Amino acid sequence: MGKFTKQENSWALYDWGSSAYSIIITTAVFPIFYKSSATAAGIDGADSTAYLGYTIAIFTFILAMLGPILGSIADYRGMKKKFFTFFFALGVAFTALLAFVPYDNWLLLLICYTLAALGATGANVFYDGFIVDVTTDKRMHTVSARGYSLGYIGSTIPFLISIVIILLAGKEIIPLSSINASRIGFLITATWWIAFSIPLFKNVHQIHFIERDGNPVVQSFKRLGNTFKEIRQYRALFLFLLAYFFYIDGVGTIISMSTAYGTDLGLDTTGLLLVLFATQVVAAPFAILFGKLAGKFSEKRMLYVGIIIYIIVCIYAVFLETIVDFWILAMLVATSQGGIQALSRSYFGKLVPKKNSNEFFGFYNIFGKFASIMGPLLVAFTAQFTGKSNYGVFSLVILFIIGLIILSRVPEPNEVVPVDEVPAS
């Protein structure tokens, strides 16, 4: 494999910084903070979980609509970094602003969370697109896995600091309320995210691009139209996206709603935070392992393994009752969470025409984000209808099964005839 280059390391290090958002805001501290705020306002547990699901669906819908359009424009020389910077700034700013929202205003919390999530997920669209600029097809699965593994390792540091502050505040060892301790966690997240994004801004640049020819917005819409007209040339790519649409739905839903789900089951805050911390620690080596095994057995086979593990997770969730059960479930998720995401990104990266990488990663985003609408809505509807959140998690099984079946129809990247670029308009 050889040593990682400065560009590969700088790209992967962004995951070290931005993953603090994923664990502290998406998965752990913010959901607990929000659930506590909603409960204090008299909102029923199942309803507040549903509102969180609806919120996730709203911001993912917005980004899904913008993804291919912005991605197509970003393929022009010098545009990728500009779009990345805008969404990065949006995400960081509203993550920090979460610390200043009044505790009793759960609705404003969700609004700020929506804007922070738009920034974080939007930046990731262009961050993912940069993978074709920093490495080769041969190294892509290893570099992608390295990004996720660094993310899991790096995110444990600000997460651990936040947990310690929250727990010490809860035991009145330090002169802070639990509310303000959580707010400090939001500020730590924003600071950590900024600090470890600096190498990407300095060392990662757009190598593959399209020269501007007239109005870039008009030309981008023409290119999108041509892509759809010539869809047969990208059959393998879009077949993969269809499979990805289904299985990543379940992955994203479990990640974003796991804490709210555990809270509804009566699990205490300390136990939830410790489980989530352990999940990050375990997920890091497994992300690397998936990357190494993909080199030996192929990315597609390892994706099968990850999907099957998630099917087991959804079935086991039905019987979840105690903190021990939650630990078992979390460790199962940890074994495949990073691997399935990393290999999906690298598998797709090998299929896309390099000059149009952002346009196609925009489609990657739209399929992933539309899936993220369906999953939370499914959980939300089921939770409200049955009054039990675990039935909503179980309903995700069908999505993993469909994804598995479609994935079996996708050829390996080395079996696909490459398309150098989208046909000229």
UniProtKB/TrEMBL annotation:
The record's section on InterPro entries has: Atg22-like, ATG22/LtaA_families, MFS_dom, MFS_trans_sf
- Specify whether Signal is a keyword of the entry: no
Domain Major facilitator superfamily (MFS) profile, chain residue ranges per copy = 236-425
Q: Kindly indicate whether the keyword Transmembrane belongs to this entry.
A: yes
Main location group: membrane
Q: Which SUPFAM superfamilies match?
A: MFS general substrate transporter
This chain belongs to which protein, by name? MFS transporter
Species assigned in the record:
Psychrobacillus mangrovi
Q: What is the lineage of its organism?
A: Bacteria, Bacillati, Bacillota, Bacilli, Bacillales
